[in-house]
Amino acid sequence: MQGYIERKITPLLKDSLSRFPAVVLTGSRQCGKTRLARQFVQSMPGAVVLDLENPRDLAKLADPLLYFEANARRLVCLDEVQLAPDIFPLLRAEIDRDRRPGRFLLLGSASKALVNRSAESLAGRIEYLELSPFLADEYLPGSPPSMLEGLWRGGYPESALAFDGQTSLRWRDAFVRSLIERDLPMLGNRVSPLAWRRFITMCSHLQGQVLNSAKLGASLDLSGNAVRARLEFLQEALLVRLLPAWAGNLKRRLVKAPKLYIRDTGLCHSLLEIGSPDHLMGHPAFGSSWEGWCVETICDSFANWAPFFYRSSGGAELDLVLERGPRRIAFEFKASSVPAPTRGFHAALADLEPERAFLVGIVDGAYPVSATVTACGLRECLEMVARLG
């Protein structure tokens, strides 16, 4: 695997720093924020990076205003900024003194506390960007073997770029342990490591399924409120996605609960003990894993569209629906080299009448199924949706 990949968010980060005094780049732990920032600031003469997990760097901020004044003409990057919550009001004072764009780049593992503190202190002075682990359109050449390998490894850089599959798997196993024993408590949740492992593992078994909080809680001896609280926390840490159900005005009985996804497929496979791409292809989770990877890639690529899934009590179903104003695009994901539409897919298209629909499989190229439906691979799908504007 290659050693460095240009992240597609880089041009947006550069543009944001040219417009705002401060930019917050959030993302789950180990998703590549620090690597991206250090690569980026190399092109910024005199830029400084402080890792607030490093006591030496933290000591430099003993008098933050003095430090900011001494580096007033430089970009100052603060990594793991949620570890210094008292710094946000001081950043506000410094930015109000000098609102020149590109003064601060703040990196933080996503948490409600981080967002709230910065929102309260830096309203109108800041832009938020979110970095995901690598997704399909960032590092795959597009051939099915590489796509399957990427799907199995997931997108955390140390896993995606590992020398071989076993190194990738061992890194993910170690990451899960660190996540449960260190990172989640550091973000503010004091659930025991054993309870967290059981909960997250159960979530991995429900990949791509409609959430039943009561059933999930019963399997873990938790109340529905406790389940919702833990899922909300994992959402804030950008580890879990709850994809909402479409709830427009149709004369249909619609499913209302969200779908549950572990956002990184490699993490999901580690929790499910899926040890290789071949093992994945024969595993019952193969289809839901492919669906989750496609959902993450498309939602990340078209973040200005609102994502939903659609399911009626009569069996009409779409894995993903993107909406923006009156426009609507539909997707169905099939872990197959010959993706075929189902009766439920056609029924859902009749209900929602999207302008375009895509059957996304593990294929190269694209071909029409009907005037408005195209079967294609994930990369081709992204290119065609981008052309729709």
Give a description of the structure.
The chain is of the alpha/beta class and 389 residues long. It folds into 2 domains: 10-130, P-loop containing nucleotide triphosphate hydrolases (Rossmann fold, 3-Layer(aba) Sandwich), CATH 3.40.50.300; 136-388, no CATH class. The chain is 45% helix and 17% strand. It has 18 helices and 14 strands. It has helices at 10-17, 33-41, 55-59, 64-70, 87-97, 112-122, 136-139, 144-153, 157-160, 165-186, 193-205, 213-220, 224-236, 265-271, 277-281, 286-301, 343-352, 378-388; strands spanning 22-27, 48-51, 76-79, 104-109, 126-130, 209-210, 240-243, 259-262, 306-311, 317-324, 327-333, 356-360, 366-368, 373-376. The chain has a 6-stranded mixed sheet with strand order 9-10-11-12-14-13. Strands 2-3-4-1-5 form a 5-stranded parallel sheet, sandwiched between helices. A 3-stranded antiparallel sheet has the order 6-8-7. A hairpin with a 5-residue loop joins strand 9 and strand 10. Helix 12 packs across helix 13 (224-236). The radius of gyration is 22 Å and the shape is globular.
